[in-house]
Amino acid sequence: MKNIILTTLNARYSHSSLGLRYLLANLKELKNEAEILEFVINSSVQTIAEQILEKKPKIIGIAVYIWNAFDIGELVRIIKKVSPQTIVVLGGPEVSFQPLRVNFDMADYIVCGEGEVSFYNLCRELLDGNCTQPRTIHSPKVDLESIVLPYDDYTDFDIKNRHIYVENARGCPFECEFCLSSIETKMRYLDINVFLDELEKLWIRGARNFKFIDRTFNIKISYAKAILNYFLAKQEDYFLHFEVIPDNFPEELRDLIKQFKPGCLQLEVGIQTLNLDVAREIHRNLKIDKIKDNLKFLSTQTHAHMHIDLIIGLPSETIESFGKNLNQLYTLSTGEIQVGILKKLSGTTLDRHDKVYGMVYNDSPPYDILQNDLIDFSMMQKMKRFARFWDIVYNSGNFQKTTALLFEDGKVYENFYDLSIWLYKRSESTYKISLDRMAEFLFEYMLPKHDEELLANTILQDVMKVGGRKIPPFFKKIIPQNYDFAQKEVSKANKRQIVRQENE
């Protein structure tokens, strides 16, 4: 039995909560009375409540995020109904800023902001029976040099089965209005030698899958170089994920990135828009020439796999402007282009555009835009399906040769928009479409404009590049019986990334 249970619902089983481990690490004398229990969204909330309450905790601390807010709201209600004496404390970005758009009224306490110190103080007072804290606790920023780091609290099971999340800095120097990170423009860094020591301890324990949550990994070049050099010195395989700004890759950083082998390095590159007028409207600083040069460098001279972010629905951005952005990015990079839908998060200043541009958002998570003065509701719905099909067809890496054929005239947005409209009418769904079924759909859609055998062979080269696959039954009627495909073994760990790179 534990007095304190720390819990959350992660988006995937392979994810782990760095925030919970920070809380656990900083509980001081209460640490032995605490335990982390992690679950996954879309699990039975009643079963989750059952497993938590089996521990008979006095305090339950729950981390709330945009993806789990609804489930957490239900979880709180169930816990308080069946065990009203149990104290529920909420924290995390979804409850740190007003307005709260999910009902958390049954929670006993809400910790806003960084909770490493505040949560400990609250638990100590609650367990001592003399709590004087208000229901809503506003936590000040912590000193990264004075709090206990959380990395020893990753278990051996975590290291073997999950991504290990790490951070060397908090804050972001930019003021992009759609992003919560823009609230804190002052950067705070952990001493680089202390951080590298923590990485080494994790490495010795067997950690090989690291996700850095720093918002701008390459903003401080000396620290970025030290971290990259640390991993380049390792002889074993590993996987690293960094969020980077697209305009800051000096030669000294380029020289290091070029040395990483395929499958080792993944970069999330925030573009959002290439329209300078739109960027200025949301306080986003774009250096277009540098962005183009760096994307070309990363695509042609490195093995880094890229996730490049574009957003639909930004204030003052038309569909035509978004289409130009997509067409241009396709020519600049071979990486995945993550097509996202604008969300209005509590705490950001995005709401200042609501009246000017007629911005209308969903009041429930994920708070996505429904329409604005330039994109009506019907068109926004079409673009949400566009984004979903784009992920299935293009970003998956399953149809690289096929999409190259589809986009051969350079009209990436226009051609894929038409395809997405057709796909939705044909499938009546954006989910649970098998690889074989999508291959058949693509063949059916593209056949009027392409030679039958060429098209079939192109699609089959995509489908059959994963070793051990069988030719989809539909295509057996079209291709020669003796058609030979080179079988390739693809690592399960980073299949999506490696499949893409083999096509480049």
From TrEMBL:
Listed CDD domains: radical_SAM_B12_BD
GO MF annotation, one: cobalamin binding
Domain B12-binding residue range list: 2-133
Domain annotation Radical SAM core: ranges: 158-387
Record keyword Cytoplasm present: no
UniProt keyword S-adenosyl-L-methionine, yes or no: yes
Required cofactor names: [4Fe-4S] cluster
Sorted UniProt keywords: Iron, Iron-sulfur, Metal-binding, S-adenosyl-L-methionine
Entry-linked InterPro entries: BchE-like, Cobalamin-bd, Cobalamin-bd_sf, DUF4080, Elp3/MiaA/NifB-like_rSAM, Methyltransferase_Class_B, rSAM, rSAM_horseshoe
A GO term from the CC aspect: cytosol
Protein name, as recorded: Radical SAM domain/B12 binding domain-containing protein (DUF4080 domain)
Species whose genome carries this gene: Arcobacter venerupis
